[in-house]
Amino acid sequence: MMRRDVVAEPSLPAAQRRPLILVVDDNAANREIMVGQLKVLGFDAEEAATGELALRCLAERRFDAVLMDCHMPLLDGYATTRRLRTIEGERHHTVVIAVTAHGLHGERQRCLAAGMDDYLPKPFRVSELGLMLRRWVEGAEAPRPAVAAAPSAPAPPSSTELDSRSIEGLRRLGVLRRVIDLVSDALPPQLVALQAAVEHDEWSRVREIAHNLRGVTAQIGARDFARLCEVMEAAAERQASSRTSVALRELQVASVPLLEAMRALRT
User: Fold this and answer.
1) Which of 34, 37, 133, 188 has its CA at 20 to 30 Å from residue 123's CA atom?
2) Quick one: which H or E segment has residue 23?
């Protein structure tokens, strides 16, 4: 469990503390972005990288809401939420908002059936997250920004690989360098793991890695790469060996300019 900017004491009345949100996502870059968004909106946050850790956090203290990634290894967001509802019973109800890059038809209904309260597809803007939390969190009708927008700075290097608006948005959150570092360091080993999964027809593993990559690359504005990940994910869903092999090669080729664009932002 990792804690961020938690200044509110559980014993304080709700009116005297800032709402506390639990961010649950197995991808460190995604957590970094969501915590940055929450900070700008005036919320406190804690992080959990797995469903098991999330349940431990929820057993230790009460949260005003949970941002729950649906697709995590071992205990995914659906199973984590079902366990939470069983544990809470009728004594308490923690608001759980699904956050996922999965855009398949019926995904919202699947989240609600698992016991989640609402659904927010990734990538989302700060304003969209703010509207969602104001809908569900008491005392979040008009959260005051905890930090001012970052001062003007030179525009990031132009790149056909990364959407400039996404990069500027991360810069304003104050998380650009950290997120780019995380994605840059994680991408090569993830592609190696993806290749091994494709070669051994490990379809669930292929879907898991492709989904993870799709979500985080969409967050940083690598739209073309994210679309290739979506193709890979869909091919693995159909267990189409030839298509996943082609998609793997396309991702490997596309990763070269993407890594170069991210390297330029790290200098």
Assistant:
1) 188
2) strand 20-24
CATH code of the domain containing 236: 1.20.120.160
Q: Is 171 in the same domain as 101? A: no
**What span, in angstroms and rounded, lies between the C-alpha atoms of 181 and 39?**
20
The string of pLDDT tens digits covering residues 147-200 is 444 444 444 444 578 999 999 999 999 999 999 999 999 999 999 999 999 999
pTM, two decimal places: 0.83
Give CA–CA dist 173/194, Å, rounded: 31
What residue ranges of the chain have pLDDT lower than 50?
A: 1-12, 143, 146-158
87-92, long-range: CB < 8 A, 24+ apart: 87/55, 87/58, 87/59, 92/62
CA 199 to chain centroid = 28
Query: How far apart are alpha carbons 101 and 219 in whole angstroms?
Result: 10
